[in-house]
Predict the 3D structure of the following.
Amino acid sequence: MEKPLTSRFRSDGEPVDIAAYERAAGYEGLRKALTMQPQAVTDTVKQSNLRGRGGAGFPTGSKWSFVPMSADTPRPKYLVCNADEMEPGTFKDRVLMELDPHSLIEGMAVAAYAIQADIGYIFLRGEYRCSAKRITAALAEARERGYIGHNILGSGFSFELHLHVSAGRYICGEETALLNALEGKRAHPRTKPPFPQVSGLFGKPTIVQNVETLCNVPHIVSKGPEWFRGLSRTGDSGTKLYGVSGKVKRPGLWELPLGTTMREIIEEHAGGMRDGVRFRGLLPGGASTDFLVEQHYDTPMDYTQVQNAGSRLGTGTMVVLDDKTCPVGMVLNLEHFFAQESCGWCTPCWSGLAWIEKILTAMEQGAGKPKDLDELAFQTKFLGPGNTFCALAPGAVEPLQSALKYFGDDFRRHVDEKRCPWR
Amino acid sequence: MATIFIENEPREADSTQNLLHVLLSLGYDLPYFCWHPALGSVGACRQCAVKQFRDERDTTGKMVMACMTPATDGTRVSIKDPDAAEFRAAVIQGLMQNHPHDCPVCDEGGECHLQDMTVMTGHCSREYRFTKRTFRNQYLGPLVNHEMNRCIQCQRCVRYYREYAGGTDLNAFRLRDTVYFGRFEDGVLQNEFSGNLVEICPTGVFTDATLKRHYTRKWDLQMAPSICVHCAAGCNISLGERYETPRRVINRYNHQVNGYFLCDRGRFGYEFVSSDQRIRECLLDGQPTNATRAAGSLGKMLEDGNCIGIGSPRASLESNFALRQLVGADRFYAGVSDEEWSVTLAALDILKNGPARSPSLDEIEQSDAVLVLGEDVTNVLPLMALRLRQSVRQQPIEKANKLKIPLWLDHAVRELLQDEKGPLFIAAPYATRLDEVATDVLHAAPADLARLGFAVAHAIDAGAPPVADLSPELTDLAGKIAEALRSAKSPLVVSGSSCRSTAVVEAAAQVAWALSKVGKPAKLSFCFPESNSAGLGLMRPRPLSEAFQAARDGKADTVIILENDLFRRVGSAEASAFLKAARHVVALDQVHNPTTAAAELVLPVGTFAETDGTLVNHEGRAQRFFQALVAAGDIRTGWRWLGGDPANNGSAKTRAWHTLDEIVQAIANEMPVLAGILHAAPSRNEVGKLAREPNRYSGRTSMLANIAVSEPKPPVDVDSALAFSMESGPEAPPPALNPFFWAPGWNSIQSVNKYQAEVGGPLRGGDPGARLIDSPQTTGWSYFSEIPAVFRREGDTWLLVPCFHIFGSEELSRLAPGISELAPRPFIGLNEADAASIGVKNGELIKVAIGSSTYQIEALLRPDVPLGIALLPAGIAPVDGVSLPAPGKLAAATVHGLAQ
């Protein structure tokens, strides 16, 4: 089984340095891309069917094709890497950046070439100190060898790449809020349209991509789109970093073909549930996705089929709920996070999440009321897609709405018994 | 235009607009918070949700925010859709989650947009049972009160304050349901337009701190349409009264003039009306006397030899006219320094005889390249500065048009444009607030500013005379300015009388005229110094120095001074000499001042709050103000003292103007240049009775019950259709006579939507005012040829130049406590090198000798002040009487015989 994203990883936890990276065919994707027309690079990525690994799964090549490429395009154009990995339960990008930072840098150089970006930023989560250190070192190495900076490898193409360490808020992971934060403004999301490709960072054409997405790009260019499509078990191409946390025997992160089933990931890779606990459900792609439960155990974990099962692949990093953990408590923990991270811009989000948090807190404390269940149900609808300014609130209510659906009895027990039955 | 379908009914709509704008313009009620016609859409509050349908067959539809959805042709929407209605009620419920529901003790109650919108959605029962978040409030200065617990996080305040008004000291802090809108720390709001927060805030977070000190509900206010008297902008205001005291001023929308906003001087200056400096009774030789006796004395004085009159740039046309008619046109003098007067007349002649049009404030905002020559606009004509701040967006927003980003999509446009600004060049004697948005700035002496202007004109049209000995830097700058103005669609030149330099206004005119010559019709706007400077100028009184000469020649036995403190116009020695030379001095004024102190007879005159009249603003627009309250005691309108009513002065020379309409007609008959004032507002007989008091005015029958239980008959207003009553005829008031905005379901000031043909556009019935100078001359003008020489210090003197301050420089508003608190301490501003030459450091005292007077003033070292120039604060004691610019000698002051 090919594992392009993780095959260079060292076993001692140290990062792959530039010499090792080059030995393992590193920067070959960039060298090849620089011999191609930018449009051909975009076409290659388009043909590979690579979808964004940040959670939304938008086709990467299509995204690039919206960037204006004519001579009178406003400059500079920007490429921004969204490395603000703050989704609860998600740690895949951290591993990539800590263990193989050059893979991200090469991916950004190739993507920048495809869209003819002049300047790049890696917008990194503030707490990722180790990533920051290793990316900084790798950037220096890459700059010294001419992989980034002026006239890359003598091609005439120039691309400056900078690391920006975030001051730290979940909303900064929303790509347009990220752009505002990068500009030094309050991290409110922006209206779309206009999309960042047209008016992004500092009002200039901009692409924002997730770390894992970018790390795939050099491989696609080197080995071709057919190879990439062949990596997957289903219609969605490539491999995926899947993670599992919760009361499983071996929590961790694995690069597996897209479409690997939930059962296989939990049973074979995570070693199954710990002794004494039973599987009740999981959040498939970070906190802001709907619960899947036992009936979905054989779902191939790709974008399409997880959606068909009523959730989203999201970041592909699963948070497992077991039968010894209170689902209301788990959801409260998540909703507390989301309420706290609401940027305060749109009413449904700041008011609804605060209310949800208070209701769930009351339930956990035995002060829930029967009509609270109706209110929770109403709020999940009120904070639904289209009603709010950005995707934070709709994502935030996904675990709640699905918990109400699958674990409704547990909520009712909290109200009826005036206590948390798990305590 | 587009056809859109609302509840399946086809309606015509402006396709360049958003659905909220269109729906409100069509008269639909749709609640909103974060949107504002002047601020555009940002989609934050989600209150204006409607259901949009793809086509006739689509029955599901999708929820959209009306403010964020373009009104493109064929759009189908429903406001009534049950899902949309339920959603809007849920949004209100969310907004109200932390709101304290303290309406009974909230100053906004009764005119609260949040109340109105809550009622509109039908949300009334509260489900949220948890603790509300609370905040600590801040002290924001004497003008604006802060109560953050009421906040609904609509973001309007910071969007207005930062993005529109250019303020930096108010911001959003924290996140989630605890966003805090305030300053980094307690302190006075630094922006000159902070008072608009009171109206921008849809609820009671930011309220009028002056109103709070003498609070009255909107429904209990007797209101009148008025005009701000604190500068020449002529902003339309609505003044509210209760128990014979003015309670507050709010904006009275006029699309052409002030739009939605006022400056803080205009909003809060009104408290001078209640100042203890008001003259409330007649004084004869310093002793109180009654009106009949005073009038008798006036009559005798008028007959005792030659009589001359001194007019006023802060008195109405009517009062000035009455004085002029009383003393005769050839004995009627301008009540301002000759330096100011010659500049005012020059500017008026330029507007009357030249090819450049004087623009309204709205047209100023639409200008896409601007040269400001010799003005500190923010401190002299503040609203113009707010408009100029928007004008720098005109060129950059073309980029948004190119990318098809609708201009109402405010943040998208701002994100695209970032800090990009169109051309605005400012040349002034010192740094001004607008410098921060300027393309290029020059700080120079008035003569050099004029030279720059003439050089720009020459660079635009080689036919305009060249400027000799121009430095390479100024040649470059002139070229740059010329290029920017020439390539603009709608260029504008702003100047005025602040430098008291005819050369400066001529240079400004030269630039505008050169543009006209090369086929680019430019606009030319002058900042006149006071509320009726332009009006007085159009009456053409003689210069003040000639009055002084007449007194010296013994040809001025009786001097009548109308609403004017001559000690603020000329040096106190000159003013005293003049007043002493006359046998009788009669002063009519609103407030005590050195002139009234020196007068034999003092007649109390009503302020704008108590009288009616006409003022001509900077644009040449005549606008009428109407009294909100009936003056107590013997306070009368100036023109009534001077000849309106024989009973008042018993003089044979009186004229029979019994009513405002009569004197307005008399002015129109006598002075063709002012004939347009007939159209400033409808006359009394043109419209039916109009109520000054709202329908819900309470306590009418009992307000005076502590004095007498029978309800007194309301005063009769013979001057206008406005009645001191709740009773009104069936018609809506015409805009010029509309005392307040109020509509069913819309109790707040946002009810102005219902008075506009299209929201944010002109008022239905036309924006009030009549332009008196309106036809630019295309022929018969020629370039000015007198170009001043380069400024050079004369000997050991400095050129003392006035430095204006929005708070303190204006004579009346400085008597309002809130304004006076914010006035600067007296200072003399000069360059560090100049200060060093006399051995003075920042904060040390300087002895300033001007003519025969000397002052000791604190030095304020400012890098922006050109060498050889020193700034003195205009209108601020102890130098408020100094006519500037003037040469002055500076030296380090000694205190108690010791050199500092």
Observations:
- Residues 327-417 of chain A form a domain with the de novo design (two linked rop proteins) fold (CATH 1.20.1440.230).
- Chain A has a mean pLDDT of 97.
